[in-house]
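User: Good morning. I'm curious how SN-glycerol-3-phosphate would be positioned relative to this chain. Could you predict the structure with it bound?
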Amino acid sequence: MKFFLDTADLGEIAEAASWGVLAGVTTNPSLYARIGGKLSDFETHVRRICDLVDGPVSAESTATGRADIVAQGRALAALSPQVVVKVPVTVEGLAATRALADEGVRVNMTLCFSVPQAILAARSGARYVSPFVGRFDDIAEDGASQLGDIVEALGNYDLSSCGVAHETIEVIAASVRNAGHVTQAALLGADIATVPFKVLKACVAHPLTDRGLDAFDKDWKKVTNA
Ligand code: G3P
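Assistant: Good morning! Here's the predicted structure, ligand included:
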């Protein structure tokens, strides 16, 4: 499973990239708003993210009609070969994704909450599909179980003929809220987990690692002081 960072914060992206484990970045309108982003800076900001990470960078279309999604998608894709256009799973989004995929633009279909939505995303030529785990948990349903169903259902088929620009679709576990979600995503066979920076940090940390380091440090001092 690959790790993407789910943020628009350049500092977080630079820091995570320096760890050598980052395979991509996903953003959405809320994440850009959270860092105080301005519309006039958006394209420059996406380019900066692409400069920081060696991998795909999802930038979301905010249009609702297919023609507008396609136009926005083309403009976003023109910013960098790294850009993947994020499009919601709606009727308009599916039609736009098919048009973009036929032009060779990679699409990440977002706001996916069901197996039928995920299969339709694959059939529309999407390069990625993003089931939202945490938002299911928010409504007292089991997000991991939904993710597992989607991974299993997509795995039942050879979807390589669906897209033009790629071989098959990858599942991005999104709306990941904690390291437990990351464990579940990996066990369920998600291709990618896109995680907030605080979750990435939580994935590194373990109290027994800290305790072990402390013990090694104390014992090594005995050696060096002997
Ligand atoms: O990638 C989508 C993700 O950002 C949504 O996360 O925490 O807003 O549900 P959240």
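Residues 207-225 form the longest helix (19 residues). The pocket of SN-glycerol-3-phosphate is lined by residues 6, 26, 28, 130, 132, 134-135, 174-175, 194 (CB under 6 Å).
Let me know if you'd like a different ligand tried.
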